[in-house]
User: Fold GAF and ANTAR domain-containing protein from Streptosporangium longisporum.
Amino acid sequence: MSSPFTSPSGPTWSDALLSLLVATDTFEEFLHELTVATAAALPEGSMCGLTVVRGERAVTIASSDDLTLAVDQIQYRTGEGPCLDTLSSGQAHHTADTSTEPRWRSFCTEAFAHGVRSCLALPLMAPGGQVGGYNLYNPRPGAFGDDVLARMNVFAGTAAGAVALSLRLADQSRLNADLRATLASRSVIDQAVGIVMAQQRCPPEEAFALLSRASQNRNLKIRDLAAEIVTTVGGRPSGPDAFDPPE
Assistant:
């Protein structure tokens, strides 16, 4: 695709990002299109990836192509490279030629074998701090000159906010999925408790205790035992998503 990022001016870059957000249906699609558009704005043959830290591990959350993902993985596996240094320092790191770069020799040797000569890593700094890093690669040496660095520094500052928003929304989506799964499990357990109460003619506290002991004796999660009981009696648990909590 042709890149909308043809000018380093703030409004143009911001408008392009907004257009991507509106035009894409998922966080994953937006981030992928962001890397594709970024690569298209760079010298011919350029590739782009987005790396964030999850837990204590660096992970690529989007890439313009499969080679970018493979080269990113070299950094993670060898424990060195411009991206990792950018994530730890918050500063840009650049090599004009992996064949002669004295730093990151393990990474550069493998990157060169994959056809990558130029590398540029830029921090993505949002108002709340660094949210990740841009990984830029090119098969030609010296592909990322001062003009590219200046333009990309401007864009990275704008893109960081969009990436931070995407990550926040993705985290909220996972939180909502976890909540729905918890509510679904609670619903199934409540139904099973009601069945045990009817069968044993006991109060809810005693019914839950019986259910809990049975789950321990059978080495089953109480939710799974509850679903089994409800299915045996009524065919399937009732309620929205009772048997299909979000992944």
In short: The first helix runs from residue 10 to 23. DSSP finds eight helices and five strands in the chain.
